[in-house]
Design goal:
It is built from 11 helices and 15 strands. Bound molecules: iron/sulfur cluster (SF4) (2 copies).
Length: about 350
């Protein structure tokens, strides 16, 4: 029998081997870049070398046949080098302007889209809990696919005031949520505890420690060690579910989606900004999630019509103010926008959006 291959536990592979030779040669020595058309970037090095990057949208979860198809296009029409961006776009790199148009044609003939650069709506970034994680409350990839199907024209054109980053997450507490617009899971009921399983499955002290609002206590139930939740304190975050699956919080009816707006990392011009909740209790409605998509489209339409050139979503909202934002996107300002968590004296019964 053939020897089993030893797993390689050394982190990311060496990126140099996958880099286009022109990029390797000019590493750190780029003079400028320009944007000749949507989906294409031209980088010029001090040495005079040039590379063109063609950005292609994917559905993120790729089967091996689709991957091979994309790589075959890369071998035939590009120079045999591809890489993926953080937002699951695939980028081909070529060193000759004459290769760009045939490459784009081959990609589009195979059913993919070219775009996502500069002031377009680029691919929605997300994690995919269904495949690798133990706590998802929805299928984030499905939300991405159905939303991007409707936003495809915004991916192919660059007509937004500035770039738009959208994110989704499949639970309420971990990945996702760093975008101009974020679609996140929102649990609305405390976890239901299966007391028969807690003692066998859960390490109770770590579950108690996990709760951000100290709502979980050890308890004896039917003579067995278990846990109990003070439901008046619980903020339905779901943080107790990963270390203790018998504290089931995912629910077909009560796990909803929420939309948050205005997150941005810091940059040379400004500090980071935090997102604010704008729509809550949206049905988690597979396979096309029409309610969430309709709200995202309204936000994008209002941003496109109302923002000044190069204003990001957070800058636009800051300039016009949250009350006007809610009017523009036709979303109600509800009691869910008021902080009702009694543990926070400073923000209890206050609004994040409006100062009186
Ligand atoms: S968003 Fe949550 S459920 Fe999805 S992969 Fe990340 S931790 Fe897992
Ligand atoms: S859902 Fe969150 S707040 Fe509620 S008990 Fe679990 S960890 Fe605590």
């Amino acid at each position: 029998m053939a020897d089993m291959r030893e797993p390689i536990e050394s982190g990311c592979p060496d990126p140099w081997q996958y880099m286009h030779p022109v990029m390797r040669k000019n590493f750190g020595m780029w003079k400028y870049h320009e944007h000749p058309r949507v989906g294409v970037l031209r980088h010029v090095a001090y040495s005079g070398d040039e590379v063109w990057t063609v950005k292609v949208g994917t559905q993120r979860i790729l089967d091996v046949f689709t991957m091979r198809k994309l790589c075959d296009i890369g071998d035939r029409y590009a120079d045999g080098f591809v890489h993926f961006t953080l937002r699951s776009n695939l980028e081909y790199v070529v060193d000759d302007a004459a290769k760009v148009e045939p490459l784009i044609k081959a990609v589009e003939d195979a059913g993919f889209v070219v775009g996502g650069t500069q002031n377009s709506v680029t691919m929605i970034s997300h994690t995919q809990g269904w495949l690798h994680c133990d706590i998802p409350g929805t299928d984030a990839s499905g939300v991405v696919k159905s939303m991007m199907d409707e936003l495809i024209d915004e991916f192919k054109t660059a007509t937004m005031p500035n770039r738009v980053h959208i994110t989704t997450s499949c639970c309420q507490i971990n990945c996702g949520g760093q975008g101009d617009i974020a679609i996140n899971v929102q649990h609305t009921k405390p976890p239901k505890i299966n007391h028969d399983l807690v003692a066998n499955v859960c390490e109770r002290p770590s579950v108690v420690a996990r709760c951000p609002v100290a709502a979980i206590r050890p308890a004896m139930v039917n003579g067995k060690p278990s846990l109990e939740v003070d439901e008046r304190k619980c903020i339905c975050c779901g943080a107790c579910f990963p270390p203790c699956p018998p504290m089931q919080i995912n629910d077909a009816e009560h796990s909803k989606l929420a939309i948050w707006v205005g997150g941005n990392h810091s940059n040379a011009r400004g500090k980071p900004t935090f997102q604010k909740l704008v729509a809550a209790g949206i049905p988690n409605n597979p396979p096309r999630w029409p309610e969430a998509t309709a709200i995202v489209k309204r936000i994008l339409k209002a941003y496109k019509e109302g923002a000044r050139d190069w204003e990001r979503v957070n800058e636009w909202v800051e300039r016009i103010g949250w009350p006007r934002f809610f009017e523009e996107v036709e979303l109600p300002f509800t009691k869910y926008h008021i902080d009702t968590w009694r543990g926070s004296r400073a923000s209890f019964n206050a609004s994040n959006y409006i100062r009186f």
